[in-house]
Specification:
Layout (H helix, E strand, L loop, with lengths): L13 H30 L21 H16 L6 H21 L3 H18 L18 H22 L5 H19 L3 H21 L8 H22 L18 H28 L12 H7 L4 H21 L5 H30 L3
Length: 374
């Protein structure tokens, strides 16, 4: 009998591989989250309402991120083993963030210590795995950047993005929906670039997040907590960067095979940025508001766009649909404007996102006035 070579597995149709990765990770996550809810209920491990940002009426467990982590790592490990681009360091950083998140969800870790561990995870991946922003490929007239500048810029960007999904994880189903949207788009770009194993890793995380979404959609039975949001933020940043770097030596997606003609890492950088633009924009907007008020930019409040939508009278589900829809519009804008100067693309993204904020703010103000709230 002929001995089977594990490498032959990767010669089957990419669609089958991607479907398997998506399905297996989702099933593992579903099972894990179900058990997490059971254990949390019996051990009384809950996210307690605080009447400031958390208005859920009952105690709800916040360790749903465990399901994301297990579903993702178990499934993606099969594809990571056949990748030689420093994935051992990426996994090490992911594990560090996972345990940091678990500790924070259970014990409320000191913010400074948490930030230090996030920096360590970023440095390990950026320096040892060499996952970094190497060149802007002409975006804003910037080409290849010096090595140490690359390390510092990528480390800071990675640390910031580790927290981005924590910022948007304020209403049921939002962070899960945004993550799945971004990851599925990255998997499409990676597949079209011939990077099927990387696409399967992205899809594994999307499937694991989808497993949590089943229990996290309004009314949520479990929250992802920092355990899930940090793993998601970090992994999405790394996969987005991998997607950009794949196009550095790739001839590009031809307009006849895909809607836009994407050639080079510079164009893909703008596309990836447009996919991630809304949560990044909202984070910077909120930071600016808090600084203008004279408070710490990390101080929790209800300045985020998703809270504006709730205050405007929209339900959790409707708010999620609005924000994911807006994110899709921004992503399409990035795709359709790949041939334009970066300044024009960025201006269009800012105008669209700002218009959404202004409309939402006006609706919020009207609803608060009508209901007699301040």
């Amino acid at each position: 009998m002929q001995e089977l070579d594990p490498k032959d597995f990767f010669h089957i149709s990419p669609i089958i591989l991607l479907s398997l990765a998506l399905g297996v990770s989702c099933i593992i996550s579903l099972y894990t989250v179900k058990k997490i809810i059971f254990i949390a209920d019996h051990r009384k491990i809950y996210d307690i309402p605080d009447d400031v940002r958390k208005f859920h009426g009952v105690n709800i467990p916040s360790l749903g991120g465990v399901g994301i982590f297990i579903g993702y790592i178990v499934t993606a490990a099969f594809f990571m083993l056949h990748e030689t681009n420093g994935w051992n360091y990426v996994v090490a950083s992911t594990v560090l963030l996972f345990f940091t998140g678990v500790y924070d969800d259970l014990m409320n870790m000191n913010p400074t210590k948490k930030l230090l561990l996030q920096l360590i995870a970023s440095v390990v991946t950026v320096y040892f795995a060499n996952v970094r922003i190497v060149s802007f490929d002409g975006v804003f007239g910037i080409g290849e950047i010096p090595y140490w500048v690359s390390l510092v810029v990528t480390t800071l960007a990675c640390t910031f993005f580790i927290n981005v999904f924590n910022f948007i994880d304020g209403i049921d189903g939002l962070a899960c929906s945004m993550a799945v949207f971004c990851l599925l788009l990255f998997s499409v770009f990676l597949t079209l670039a011939g990077q099927v194993k990387l696409a399967c890793i992205a899809v594994s995380l999307a499937g694991a997040t989808g497993g949590l979404f089943y229990y996290n959609v309004a009314p949520a039975k479990v929250y992802m907590g920092d355990t899930g949001s940090m793993v998601l933020g970090f992994s999405i940043f790394i996969l987005g960067l991998r997607t950009i770097n794949c196009y550095a030596h790739f001839p590009g997606i031809d307009a006849h095979t895909f809607l836009p003609a994407i050639h080079g890492s510079g164009m893909m950088m703008l596309v990836v940025f447009s996919v991630l633009f809304l949560p990044v924009y909202d984070a910077f907007r909120v930071f600016a508001i808090r600084i203008a008020r004279g408070v710490s930019p990390l101080r929790a409040d209800r300045s985020h766009l998703h809270y504006y939508l709730l205050d405007a009278g929209f339900s959790h589900t409707t708010s999620v649909l609005i924000l994911v829809g807006a994110n899709a519009v921004l992503a399409v804008t990035g795709l359709l404007t790949t041939g334009l100067p970066a300044a024009v693309v960025l201006s269009l993204l800012i105008v669209e996102a700002t218009a959404l904020v202004l409309v939402t703010y006006r609706l919020r103000k009207q609803n608060l006035a009508a209901t007699g709230k301040s």
